[in-house]
Structure formats: structure tokens, C-alpha cells
Amino acid sequence: MRRYLLFLLTVLPILLIALPAGIVLYFSPNASVAPPVSSEQGTTASNEPQPEVKVYRSEKQKTETIPLERYIEGVVAAEMPAEFELEALKAQALAARTYIVRRLAEGKFEDVPQGAQVLDTIQHQKYLDDEELKAIWKENYDAKRDRIRQAVKGTAGMIVTFEGKPIDATFFSTSNGFTENANEYWNQSIPYLRSVASPWDRESPKYQVVTEMSLADFEQKLGVSLDAQAISTGSIYSVIERTTGNRVGRVQIGNKVFTGKEVRERLGLNSTAFAMTLKNNSLQITTQGYGHGVGMSQWGANGMAKEGKRAEQIVKYFYQGVSLEDYHKILPS
Q1: Under a CB-based contact definition with an 8 Å cutoff, are residues 151 and 92 in contact?
Q2: DSSP 8-state code for residue 201
Q3: Any alpha helices (H) in the chain, and if so which ranges?
Q4: What is the SS3 assignment for 323?
Q5: Cα distance between residue 240 and residue 253, in whole Å
Q6: Distance CA 326, CA 124 (A)
Q7: What is the pLDDT of residues 40-89, one digit of tens each?
Q8: pTM for the whole thing?
């Protein structure tokens, strides 16, 4: 009994003092809590000074200077449907910001008019300003703009890096079910641009498209002449090699061998995942996917977001072995 009373007299006052203090400390705004990588309010980097981006406006034929985060808003709005899931839009913002930060850090602007740093076309990444977006979105402008801004603000200042350097954050619309190894499309091996499965792309309207082309156009564009037997049997091509992403790596047409990339570019196909059928001197070419297939699939990102994946998880899936970092460490203001 004495021990019990001693316990109450000794320990209870300590608890009565320590417990409220602990609660106050826990909920204090000055408590040390690690911030999330991204949130709807943005990161700590969003309060840092921003560099400006000199964008060459192709139609206006002049260069405009735009704060970096506003530039990212214009890129995301131009490159991805505003109706996509918020986490997919955030992933797109990370890729877009990484692209321009890498370009600014490298300082190589020989491919743009003097005084500019980046084009507003798909040669680099598309960019649209508010007036252009108002004309496109019309009565939906305010809602879509706010959604894009929320995605950009939610990733403010953050980029994707590999071994401490900004990655080549390539992206494209739709895969054929797999992304592609960089070396199998561009003949350049990049460790974070490796083939991964992307089954979500089946939801894309561009997942499978059939294009019709005359045999004469086909021969002219490829610089080949098909013999009568090939035409009569319909055996106009033979796939020699397929890529890791199940696209056409090399193909023989007539007496010539082409890469899948060469055929895609010469014929203007959606992707290098194609099959051809000859009917009555007309070719039906079925393609799966849209774009080069390397890096992040936008429809794949949207599918992952629908399943509850966050932007960080999305980019780390499509760009393997990467990290997220504040770009101010790489590109001081």
C-alpha cells in the first residue's frame, strides 16, 4: 500500500506536467517535422527566387521572358490534358521542370534564335500562354487553369535527378503496353530510360490506329520498289528484329533494311509498333501507341494516378533509379 501511495505522490505530478507539455510541443508550428516531397501547397522551394526562361514564341517570332514556374504552367497545359488526374499532372510538371532546368544548367542554346533559350514547340516542349489557353479552353479556362496551377504549385522547385544531375526527362503520349529502351530508339544507352510495362495505355484513344496508304505512296516514301510476287502474296515486309518494348527494331521492305524509327518517320506513323496488310494496292497500317515510347507515358501516368499512385511514384516508375531534388541546388538563382 505504501509503495502504491509513493508511486501516486511521485509519478503522478510528473505525468500531469509532462503530458500537456508534450501535447503542446507536438502540435506546435515550430515542431521539427520533415516536409513532404510535394503537396498541394507546394514545397519549401516554392518560396525561393526563380530564374527566368527566355522562350522563343514561334508564331509571334519573338522571345518572351517568363518566370520559370509560370513557364511550367504553360508547358503542362500544352502537353497534357487538364482533365487528367492531379497526380499525373504533377508528374508532368516534374518532367517539364526537369527538362528546362537541365537545359538552363547546360547553357547550350545553339538550336534556338539568338537571345532565346528554348522553343515553344515539340522540338523542345510545347508552351502556351494565358491568352492562347483562353482561346482553346473558352468557358472552362478558369477551372482548367486552376487545376494546372495546383499541380505545378504542388511540385514547385522539384526536379528529377540521376546521380545528382537533372535527367533527360523524355515523355510521350501513349505506349503499346511497354515503354522503350533509349538505346533501341536513339542508339544511346541511358540508365534511367529503360523499358517498363505500361498496361494503362489501353485507355488512350491513340492506343490503336489504322492508317490507309496507297502502295505508290508507300514505295515513294521509302524509296523501294516491290516485286510482283511480294505484291501478289501480300508479303511486302519482314520484321527482322523486335525491341525490348515489342516494337519493330529492324524490318526488311523490298531489298532494303530499315530501322523501325526510319519507317515511322518516313511514313509519318504514330509509333514504331506497326503491322501492315496489303489490300487491292492499298496498305492498311495498324499502329499501337503514339510517340517515340521512351520515358514517361502520359496515359500510363494517368492510369497509375487513377490507381492511387502519387507523382513521385509515377516518375520513379518510368525513370528508373532517380531521385527528386530542389533545383536550386543545381541552378542557383
Answers
A1: yes
A2: G
A3: 2-27, 68-79, 86-106, 130-137, 141-153, 215-222, 228-233, 260-267, 298-306, 311-318
A4: strand
A5: 10
A6: 22
A7: 334 444 566 789 999 999 999 999 999 999 999 999 999 999 999 999 99
A8: 0.84
